[in-house]
Prior knowledge:
Layout: E1 2-4, E2 9-10, E3 20-21, H1 23-41, E4 46-47, H2 49-56, H3 60-68, E5 80-81, H4 82-92, E6 99-104, H5 108-115, H6 118-121, E7 124-131, E8 140-141, E9 144-145, E10 147-148, H7 152-159, E11 163-166, H8 170-182, E12 187-190, E13 203-207, H9 209-224
Parallel strand pairs: 6-7, 6-11, 7-10, 11-12, 12-13
Antiparallel strand pairs: 1-13, 2-3, 4-5, 8-9
Helix pairs in contact: 1-2, 1-4, 2-3
Domain CoA-binding: 94-195
Subunit structure: Homodimer.
Function: Modulates transcription in response to changes in cellular NADH/NAD(+) redox state.
Amino acid sequence: MTSLESSPHAVPGGAGPAKQIPPAAVARLTIYLRALTALLAEGVDRVSSESLAEASGVSPSTLRKDLSHVGSYGTRGVGYDVQYLNRHIAAALGLTHDWKVAIVGAGNLGRALARYGGFESRGFEVVAIFDADQMVVGSEVGWLRVSDAANLEPVLQRTGANMAVLALPAAVAQDVCDRVIAAGVRSILSFAPVVLQVPPGVNLRKVDMATELQILAYHAQRAQDPAGTD
């Protein structure tokens, strides 16, 4: 559902330049992390590459190649230490840092995101939510109170937000994006149905649900009519 519009991720720590991880591998690492977290919840201590690959929906060779980007910690005949690998992937993805998220747009999508309980368990704290509609400003979303978008910059600085989610109409998305960047935020997730322009050094990811549904419709049509014309 997302498209990467920034430079590849890097493994943190260590001497010398950080090793770059290809964007596709980064996306799969998040899936491995989810599978490992589920295994930990079940009390599983070790897992084979075959089992972890199956739980993640990839081939064992793809899994091993992806894990080589963060260092391979499997032992032949024994498998991977689930807790250790979970911590190491989390560190490689930057999830050991404190990520404070501000949501701009308190419509249905913004409110749903603010209430989502899965963020905190994965290291993301939603610290602010904004809207320009004065009928919405001051209302409560979970434990948060909607702030006026006119006060975007001071609230971002006060809360220490270092990530922003844009749940906005296309017409205002670029202006708000520029303001967020000017306030010092360098990691942005946009749900706005428009291509945003950001300067070098800013990580932007775009989620376009309409496009994903169109792609699904294409594949569904092909499945129903495999003999159709190209």
